[in-house]
Automatic annotation (TrEMBL):
Keywords: Repeat
Family: Belongs to the PPR family. P subfamily.
Any one Pfam family match given in the protein's UniProt record, by short name: PPR_1
Source species: Gossypium arboreum
PANTHER family with a match to the protein in the record: ATPASE EXPRESSION PROTEIN 3 (PTHR47932), OS10G0484300 PROTEIN (PTHR47932:SF2)
Superkingdom of the source species: Eukaryota
Record InterPro entries: PPR_rpt (IPR002885), TPR-like_helical_dom_sf (IPR011990)
Protein name per its UniProtKB record: Pentatricopeptide repeat-containing protein
Residue ranges of PPR repeats: 63-97, 98-128
């Protein structure tokens, strides 16, 4: 990731995107939106997690498909613990993991060398525990 320089300050692009996420978590959507605009002006592009934070921050309803996008991204980055927490959260908000959720999680666990957890999830899926 290329550093961004401007005057006496040098920051990483990921730092800016993380700042957007934190502003959204705080509920400061006006400032988060302004920062997103500035990010675009310096030719940076927000990642999926940044967009997800903005959607959440504006209290837009998310569906299983939106959660699947984030889960897949987390799995691809190897953050299986966060992906698993998000999968559990889907069930707590009256949504259900679907085939794509399970596919991303099982593949992610396998890629991370966590085969036992992948098998447990596969068995849970086959037993119909939350799968639609």
């Amino acid at each position: 990731m290329q550093p961004i320089t401007g005057g006496p300050c040098t920051i990483q692009a990921n730092d800016m995107l993380q700042h957007v996420w934190l502003l959204c978590e705080k509920g400061d959507m006006d400032m988060a939106h302004k920062l997103m605009i500035k990010i675009g002006l310096i030719d940076l592009y927000p990642n999926m997690m940044t967009y997800f934070a903005m959607i959440k921050g504006f209290n837009l309803l998310l569906d299983t498909i939106a959660y699947n996008v984030v889960i897949r991204l987390l799995c691809e980055k190897g953050d299986m613990d966060m992906a698993h927490k998000l999968m559990i959260k889907i069930g707590l908000i009256d949504l259900y993991p679907d085939m794509m959720t399970y596919f991303a999680m099982i593949k992610g666990f396998c890629n991370a060398g966590r085969l036992e957890e992948a098998c447990e999830l596969f068995q849970a899926m086959n037993l119909g525990k939350g799968f639609i």
